Structure formats: C-alpha cells, structure tokens
Automatic annotation (TrEMBL), chain A:
Domain spans labelled FAD-binding PCMH-type: 1-222
InterPro entries: CO_DH_flav_C, CO_DH_flav_C_dom_sf, Diverse_Substr_Oxidored, FAD-bd_PCMH, FAD-bd_PCMH-like_sf, FAD-bd_PCMH_sub1, FAD-bd_PCMH_sub2, Mopterin_DH_FAD-bd
Keyword Flavoprotein: yes
Descriptive protein name: FAD-binding molybdopterin dehydrogenase
PROSITE patterns xrefs: FAD_PCMH
Pfam families: CO_deh_flav_C, FAD_binding_5
GO function term, MF aspect, one: oxidoreductase activity
Keyword terms, alphabetized: FAD, Flavoprotein
UniProtKB/TrEMBL annotation, chain B:
Gene3D superfamilies in alphabetical order: 3.10.20.30, [2Fe-2S]-binding domain
Name listed for the protein in its UniProt record: (2Fe-2S)-binding protein
Entry keywords, A to Z: 2Fe-2S, Iron, Iron-sulfur, Metal-binding, Oxidoreductase
Molecular function via GO: 2 iron, 2 sulfur cluster binding; metal ion binding; oxidoreductase activity, acting on the aldehyde or oxo group of donors
Domain (2Fe-2S ferredoxin-type): residue spans on this chain: 3-80
UniProt keyword annotation of Metal-binding present: yes
InterPro entries: 2Fe-2S-bd, 2Fe-2S-bd_dom_sf, 2Fe-2S_ferredoxin-like_sf, 2Fe-2S_ferredoxin-type, 2Fe2S_fd_BS, Aldehyde_Oxdr_Iron-Sulfur, Beta-grasp_dom_sf
Naturally occurring in which organism (per UniProt): Neoroseomonas lacus
A Pfam family per the record: Fer2_2
Length: 351, 166
C-alpha cells in the first residue's frame, strides 16, 4: 500500500474541501478501496475518511412517497430496513445476494455505487489496462475474458461494473444526489456511470471533490413492490459476483402489464437498463412469449468482446427468469438463497 | 494530526499510537496487541478468517483501517470465554467436530455469533449456510459448522428466553 495523507473531516463541507485536492479519494468502509490499495491498483495521495462525518446515514421516507438513502447507510442496514423492504424488495434481494454478511455490514451505499471493476487485468499492475493506466492497452482483449462485457464496450476497455445493488436501482429510476466544490446536483443513476468509449479511466460523472450524498428512489418506484425480483447467476452458490443478473418489476392490471422495468447486471460497464424491452412489455399479457421477446430486445445490441458469447444467451434467460418470478409475485419472505436461480419458481416452474 | 486510536478490545480500553495510517484493524490486533487468535487468510475480504465483532457486528478486520474506528468496541475470539467457561458457539463447535485444522475456526465462530445476533437465519440449515458463506473452510468442515451454528442458536435463544422470564 502506498503512503497517503490521512484527513478526517466532520462535515460534508470539510470533506469536499479536503477531497478537491487532486489525487484524493474518499474512504467509506474501504472494502473496495483498501483492497485495491493493497495490490497497488489504486494509489491515492490522500484519503478523506468519511467514517467521522455527521449525517448521510439515514433512510428517509419523503413526503412525496419517495425514499432518500444517505450515502453512508450500510448495505445490510438498508437490506434489513422493514419499511424499505416492503417498498423495494428487489433492491433488498440484490443487496443480500452481494458479497458476504461481513462485507455488507460495513459496505456503504456510496461505496457500492463507486466500486471498481473486478477485471483481473485492472487489478494486476503488471498488466496493460487503459482504465488503470490510460493509453497502456488492454490485456483483457485476447486474455481471460469470459466474464467481460457484451454491451456498451469499446476497443479500449471491455470491463463490467460489478454492483448488484445498482441493477434494481437503475430499473427503478434512482437518482444520485451529489455535492461538490461547485454546489449540488442530482443525476439519474442511469447517466451516472460512463461507458468506456475512448476514456475508460472516466468511470462516473463525478468530478474531483464531488461526493455522493444520497440515492433517491422516486415515489412511482414503490408501485412495483408487489411484483419485483432480482436474479443473479454466479459461478458458485453464494459469495460471488454476478456472471449475469437481472432486476425486473411489473405492474399488472386485468391480465395486462401496464408498466414494466428491466435492467441487467454483469453485461456492461454500467448497470444496464433495457428500455426497449420495458416498452414492449407495456400492454402485453404476462407470459413466456412476451418475456422471451423482451429479453431478446434487451440483448439486441449485444456482441461478444471475447470468449463470452454465452453471456448473451445466458443474460436473456436470466432476464426471462426475473420477469417470470416478478409476474409470480414478490414472496412474503426472501428465499434462503436471495436472487439464486436455484430457488424454485412458485407454481412449480423450472427454468 | 495525532494518529492515536482508542479501542475497547474484549472489554478492555486500549490506546495505540499509530506511526502510520495504513495499519488495518487485523494487523493492529495481531502485530501490535499480540491478539493472534484472529487469523489472516487472504487479507482481501475473500475468506472470513479475520472476522471480529465491531460494535457488535461481524466484519472483516483485514479490510478496515484501524484509524477509521476510533472509539469502537471490538470483540475477538480471545474475549469469548469468561472465567474459563466457553461461549455456547465455541462449545457447539467442539461438540459437532466443526473443524479440522482450525485455521478458519476463530473467524467461523465470530461470524456465527454475528449471524445469531442478526436473527435472520433461525434454525433453517439453508439460511445458516447462506449466512455463513463469508467464511471459507479449506478443510471442508461445513457440515459440522452448520450443525454447530444451529445448536448454538437453540442454546442461546433458550438462554435468552429464560433470562427474560427470570
Ligand atoms: C470478496 C468480496 C466480494 C464482493 N462481492 C460483491 C458482490 O457479489 N456484489 C456486489 O455488488 N459487490 C460485491 N463486493 C463489493 C462491495 O459491494 C464493495 O466493496 C462495497 O460496496 C464498497 O463499499 P465501501 O463503503 O467499502 O466503499 P470503499 O471501498 O470505501 O470505496 C469504494 C469507492 O467509492 C468511493 N466512494 C465511497 N463513498 C463515496 C461517496 N459517498 N462519494 C463519492 N465516492 C465515494 C471511494 O473513493 C472508492 O473509490 C465484494 C467485495 C469483496 C471484497
Ligand atoms: S477490460 Fe478495461 S479494466 Fe480490464 S484490462 Fe482492459 S482496459 Fe483494463
Ligand atoms: S483475511 Fe480477511 S477475509 Fe480473508
Ligand atoms: S478447519 Fe481447516 S480451514 Fe476450516
């Protein structure tokens, strides 16, 4: 780990002032940042420790029916908040399918959004990586790339964003509240992470010093509570990142879908909202034909970036599974294995 | 800024002067306070060997900076047995042969105490396995671990109910 200056702000204003210095990084729980610092993949000159800030740690029910989640709320506390669970069960299912109980107990909302890719070449400082060292190349091209992106990638970078939490959040139209040296702004989560293009080192819209202070879910997002699920395919049953994942939310009236939400994880450098699929589902009768069509639309632009053509079909199947489970209804209690495709589908279906 | 941290470790307040902010909670325990019961497996959050309770919650000590936790209460495996009497989870691990080499065991036990405190798994083996998935065991003692956690869950729940009744 490199040496760094350690700064301990107590207010948001102090934090932003301290982090405006180039080379600074915010330290939340550190479960991603310290890990990357240990292996030299991140080398901040200054750590601005958010652990002594006052505030940013509440889950607020807003007068308009929306919910505002402070950036320092712990992943486990959000997942186990009873009111939040009733409103946004798929968000809780996604959170509980991520990492381990120990990590979720400390990992924060802000840190989850801003966690870095798990691309092995990004982590290995002996490898070429445009994201870590701009202009150095991309050793994932032609390397081990089974788990890399199939949507939105560029010649310069084929990495994926690893967050589970972000997938239902983007499906539900979450908004990221930001404060920085130039003031406050709010950005839809959908526009928060950047696709790699020519500048894979730019991972989000944040500029130096900008701090995520909260994530807001709009009131209409709770309208999917009765029919929403997250499904995540992993290489082992638990404690593993998604190979592919999907969050689905439906509103069904008189046998017709009135509104649908669908987003995919593990497929791109950002959580991937499938708007064309959502549009096609609106007005359709819920069922295998509509779900297959939606899944095809969701992956319509997909191309393999390496040994990962299988992910295109797999992502479609996981999207169909998520839609099927959502149509069957949110269970009263989350399954023992949250988001697992091994959990049985109510009604005895098998995928 | 002074780099001193005060932590209450196994019920005893300890103040440590840090010459360097890079010290993890795990290295603080093992290298500076000689509490080597907490193990270092991967040092990267991937195995759970370093699990301790931080303010009552199970966490990976390897991915926490000590300096970020001034004032915190830490419980490690060394702080479990009181006056020579084993903690119910320790006793259940022995009764169920829930270990072979023992390297993962302190982390497993601290994690199990955290899991039981969270109250989400109850005695459902599938929920216990999922709740304990952050602790790997290279010897594959998982079956005994699951049994031990379920038995300890029963023991601790019965004890609490009795205490409440008294
Ligand atoms: C073994 C392991 C398995 C995991 N498995 C999964 C998984 O299956 N699914 C999953 O989704 N995640 C998984 N994770 C990742 C985990 O979710 C993240 O490490 C965690 O959410 C990061 O939160 P943190 O508070 O520790 O952030 P930190 O590590 O402190 O910070 C991460 C990044 O966010 C920045 N940051 C933090 N807070 C803010 C803020 N408020 N504003 C601006 N920038 C900020 C930091 O500067 C840093 O760049 C896993 C991690 C590990 C170690
Ligand atoms: S895929 Fe992206 S993150 Fe991975 S090595 Fe290539 S440039 Fe780096
Ligand atoms: S040593 Fe901390 S998780 Fe492995
Ligand atoms: S008993 Fe040997 S690693 Fe678990």
């Amino acid at each position: 780990m490199n040496r760094f200056d350690y700064v301990r702000p107590h207010t948001v204003a102090e934090a932003i002032a301290a982090a405006a210095m180039p080379g600074s990084a915010y330290l939340a729980a550190g479960t991603n940042l310290l890990d990357l610092m240990k292996i030299g993949a991140a080398r901040p000159a200054r750590l601005v420790d958010l652990n002594y800030l006052s505030g940013l740690d509440a889950i607020e029910q807003l007068p308009d029916g929306g919910v505002r989640i402070g950036a320092r709320v712990r992943n486990a506390d959000l997942a186990h908040d009873a009111a939040f669970r009733r409103q946004f069960p798929a968000v809780c299912e996604a959170l509980l399918s991520g990492a381990s109980a120990q990590l979720r107990n400390v990992a924060t909302v802000g840190g989850n959004l801003l966690q870095r890719t798990r691309c092995a070449y990004f982590q290995d400082t002996a490898s070429a990586c445009n994201r870590r060292a701009p202009g150095s190349g991309c050793d994932a091209r032609g390397g081990e790339n089974r788990l890399h992106a199939v949507l939105g990638w560029s010649e310069g970078c084929i990495a994926t964003h690893p967050s589970d939490f972000c997938v239902p959040l983007v499906a539900l139209g979450a908004v990221v509240e930001i404060e920085g040296p130039a003031g406050a702004r709010a950005i839809p989560l959908q526009d928060f992470h950047l696709l790699p293009g020519e500048t894979p080192e730019r991972e989000s819209v944040l500029t130096p010093g900008e701090l995520v202070v909260a994530v807001r879910l709009p009131p209409e997002a709770a309208g999917f509570a009765a029919q929403s699920r997250y499904v995540k395919l992993r290489e082992r049953t638990s404690y593993a990142f998604a190979v592919v994942s999907a969050a689905a939310g439906l509103r069904i009236e008189n046998g017709r879908i009135t509104e649908a939400r669908l987003a995919l994880g593990g497929v791109a450098a950002k959580p991937w909202r499938a708007e064309a699929a959502e549009a096609a589902l609106a007005g359709a009768a819920p069922g295998a034909a509509a779900f297959r069509h939606a899944a095809e639309l969701a992956l319509a632009g997909a191309r393999p970036s390496g040994d990962n053509a299988f992910k295109i079909e797999l992502a479609q199947r996981i999207a169909i599974r998520a839609l099927t489970l959502a149509a069957a209804g949110t269970p009263d209690r989350l399954p023992a294995l949250p988001a697992s495709p091994f959990a049985p589908i109510p009604g005895g279906l098998h995928g | 800024m002074s780099l001193s941290v005060t932590l209450t470790i196994n019920r005893v307040p300890r103040t440590v002067e840090l010459d360097d902010p890079r010290v993890t909670l795990l290295d603080l325990l093992r290298e500076r306070l000689d509490l080597t019961g907490t193990k270092k497996g991967c040092d990267r959050g991937q195995c759970g060997a370093c699990t301790v309770l931080l303010n009552g919650r199970r966490v990976n000590a390897c991915l926490a900076l000590a300096i970020s936790h001034d004032g915190a209460e830490i419980l490690t495996i060394e702080g479990l047995a009181e006056s020579g009497v084993l903690h119910p989870v320790q006793a259940a691990f022995i009764a169920h042969d829930a270990l072979q080499c023992g390297f993962c065991t302190p982390g497993q036990i601290m994690s199990a105490i955290g899991l039981i405190g969270e109250g989400q798994a109850g005695d459902d083996p599938e929920r216990v396995r999922e709740g304990m998935s952050g602790n790997l065991c290279r010897c594959g003692a998982y079956r005994g671990i699951t049994e031990a956690v379920i038995e300890a869950t029963h023991d601790m729940t019965v004890t609490t109910t009795r205490e409440e009744a008294a």
